[in-house]
Amino acid sequence: MTETLKILFAVIILFGALLSVLSAIGILRLPDVYTRNHAVSKSGTLGVLSILLGTFLYFSLIEGYMNARLILGFVFLFLTSPVAGHLISRAAYNTKVPLWEKSSQDDLKDKVHHSKERISP
Fold first, then answer.
1. How far apart are CA 63 and CA 38, in angstroms?
2. Are 18 and 46 in contact (CB under 8 A)?
3. Which of 16, 61, 112, 117 is deepest in the core (most CB within 10 A)?
4. What are the angstrom distances between the C-alpha of 104 and each of 30, 34, 45, 99, 100?
5. Within its chain, how far is the Cα of 81 from the centroid?
């Protein structure tokens, strides 16, 4: 049973490492800041969370050692990474960083222009 759990935790950690590699490839290969940010905030976060989860499960169930720092890292990353990704994309949009020329839709176009019209006197 212990060997099965070790293999399961190793698979979770390897899955996280694979997602982190895919995130790094996304940063290098995707065309604009918005798609790159999406790659980092989605697959990168899930990859690191998977690595932390596999590590936590291994040490708590196999070694009998509970580490609160892993739980705090898990919670902190889960709460901050999506918010940071959203704010970075929003800041890029508000500073008029252009979308990729093959982007088919701009959902914020009407919302941002309406909010600027209300603010300006």
1. 36
2. no
3. 16
4. 16, 13, 26, 10, 9
5. 6
Q: Which of 21, 52, 33, 40 is nearest to 81 (CA)?
A: 40
DSSP 7-35: HHHHHHHHHHHHHHHHHHHHHHH-SSHHH
How much is the pTM?
Answer: 0.78
**Overall domain count for the chain:** 1
2 and 62 in contact (C-beta within 8 Å)?
A: yes
* Amino acid at site 104: S
Q: Name the residue range of residue 57's domain.
A: 2-119
pLDDT tens string 65-81: 888 888 899 899 988 98
